[in-house]
Amino acid sequence: MAKMNRETVLTEALDLLDEVGLDAVSTRQLARRLGVEQPSLYYHFRNKKELLSAMSEAAMAPHATAPLPTSADDWRDWFLENTRSFRRTLLLRRDGARLHAGSHPGGTDLDRIAHKMAFLIAAGVPAKHARTAMLAAGRFTVGSVLEEQADAGPGDGGDRTAAAPPDLPPDVPPVDHESSFEAGLALILEGLEQRVRRAG
């Protein structure tokens, strides 16, 4: 195996996550996968919590490196696409939403958030409503993906449909996770648009 470094550890850790799920990820299994003794991992990560935090950050790379909004963008279209990008990224990894839940932005993430907020404010969205809408959309997305991935089979980032709950009548159609997400996202945007109109 190539020389072990932080990037190699993270790559293998995320592959392990996809194979066994978050509950089964352990430093012991990861060390075995890397062909090293468990204490060797602590050179790169002091403990499992630090490893999981780094895994969460790495897993979010597709969303964290997406193009930032520009003054030419329509803020409504951008708000929708930004939230969809977040959802797509969470779905890339098994238990992606669980891995991300409870994490906190830092470094360049904070700079990107500040840029996004400045974009919304410059587009006419009052700061307090922009903050609330971004937070609501983020939490709604994590919750939606948690449910979607709970319905998915092992090794699958997320199903697009799930069986109706057993306590509902048999003629109730399966849950379409993507359609449900889009409907909820549309409600958040509509609410934000109303707040913007009132503020104007």
From TrEMBL:
InterPro entries: DNA-bd_HTH_TetR-type_CS, Homeodomain-like_sf, HTH-type_TetR-like_transc_reg, HTH_TetR, Repressor_TetR_C, Tet_transcr_reg_TetR, Tet_transcr_reg_TetR-rel_C_sf. Residues 3-63 form the HTH tetR-type domain. Residues 26-45 bind DNA. Residues 149-179 are annotated as: Disordered. Transmembrane segments: none annotated. Keywords: DNA-binding, Repressor, Transcription, Transcription regulation. This is TetR/AcrR family transcriptional regulator C-terminal domain-containing protein.
